[in-house]
Amino acid sequence: MTAPLAATRCDRTAAWAALQAHFAAEGEGFDVRQAFAADAADTSLGAKRFANFSQQAPHVFADLSKNLIDEQTESLLQTLAQQCGLEAQRDAMFAGEKINTTEQRAVMHFLLRQPAQQAGDQPQPWHEALAQVHSTLSAMLAYAEQVRADERITDVVNIGIGGSDLGPQMAVLALAEFSIPGKRFHFVSNVDGHELAGILSQLDAEKTLFLVASKTFTTTETMTNALSAKRWFEAQLGAAAAPKIARHFAALTTNVAAAQAFGISSTFGFWDWVGGRYSLMSAIGLPLAISIGAVGFKEFLAGAHAMDEHFRTAPAARNVPIRLGLLDVWYRNFHGFSSRSLAPYHSALQRLPAYLQQLEMESNGKRVDRTGAALPFDTAPVLWGEPGTNGQHAYFQMLHQGTDVVPVEFVAVKKATHSLLGHHDKLLANVLAQAQALMLGQVDAGGHRHFPGNRPSTFLLLDELTPASLGALIALQEHRVFVSGAIWGINSFDQWGVELGKMLAKDVEARLASGEVSGLDASTAGLLQKLRA
Ligand code: F6P
């Protein structure tokens, strides 16, 4: 299959010029408070800003109305999307075309949550791949159920990094309410041995299952940790260890041969068309499947699929991933905002910012277009954040009164699952109040008490935090990242920027052992000598 037709570079479209003119005329001085006030005053139309800029998508209600946009902004952004061929690019992904052009790979994480082919369905180019997805999913879920039923296993240790760690870790924490009692989940990612040593010291080898998660099965951190875990297991059990490896180690990887060469016979595969940061719904999700069970995992996939269908079929103007992705472009390229803060108001979503950081910054942190030509405009913002209300007592000061404007994305959950009195009302009151305070400010106060206000925020609301709603929230974020990447014309699915450091680390490791500093810059040489002294 061929790569999709090259779209016009976004900054060369007529819509981009129109957006620049709109920004200069109205966007720069836009005041969202006045927009709400004008809306309320217009009795012929009724209050429509909230209605126009919010909508229900599968499992997620999105309110964009506190952002620095009006109808003209959104309409021009929609024109930009058309002129950049956004829908054709989206359709190319869903058709299984090789849109990851630098690696000549299709990008089909949506297939991981696609229901099995039904008789009478239109034949699709990815028909074979879908059959493999379902047979692997069945095997993985059967294994998950077997582990759940095995009372001798009390501890599951996931060894992986990046996409092979952040997703399962985030999701297991997020859905802890649904977790099987009697099993603990641990996540080891860092090559820093303090992490693995700290976890091993809590474990009994006979009761532990190690999952070695690595798409490539070559990542230094993961291979180093996996080897140490295996050595520890062998040291703990002595001669009894060898026959038990099969029951106590499993590998989740596209490189099944390497896992087998490492001595792991229980393997669950996935495919090169699943990017590492998009792999949570593949075999990489095994820790989550063990935690919440096959039924829960299927609900998780179904939630994501519902969002995929929304992204694939809803008209662009009422398509939440498209609206959010275009808003990201508006803020980055016209307002010049260089970061976005994510504030999940649910303690179980504590790892969501880290997960989304990889998703967005590894996908869109690029400075060249798909052909490798340098881009003259900004791409991915810095994404950062902490759960609320904690952030309020730390960096929210800067969000309210600092010199930079940082759009905030709130994520709130309507229903709590605990029965502690008063907590959830206070939590929800706080998230609403923060969004309100950012927007309204306190303009009649002077000096230190002055809040400029007009600070934008988006509000994503889930009814409940369930496997299905988490799946939908993740798919929403994947697709909004697709949208901004597609507008910018970059390849959101490679990550060449991680390679240089990996290569240099190999050289430095050898030099740390030998003390050879010739050819090094003076700073690296000086530090290396200090480390060896
Ligand atoms: O180095 C970056 C990266 O390749 C990520 O893209 C990936 O999620 C992570 O490393 C882990 O890779 P693997 O799953 O192959 O071990």
Describe what you observe in this structure.
The chain is an alpha/beta fold and 533 residues long. The protein folds into three domains: 290 residues, 3-Layer(aba) Sandwich (Rossmann fold), CATH 3.40.50.10490; 150 residues, 3-Layer(aba) Sandwich (Rossmann fold); 34 residues. Helices cover 47% and strands 10% of the residues. The strands form two sheets. It has a six-stranded mixed beta sheet, sandwiched between helices. β8, α14 and β9 form a beta-alpha-beta unit. The chain starts with 13 loop residues before the first helix and ends with a helix. 6-O-phosphono-beta-D-fructofuranose binds next to loops.
Short description:
With 533 residues, the chain is α/β, with parallel strands linked by helices. It contains 19 helices and eleven strands. Helix 4 packs across helix 13 (320-335), helix 7 packs across helix 12 (286-313) and helix 12 crosses helix 17 (467-488).
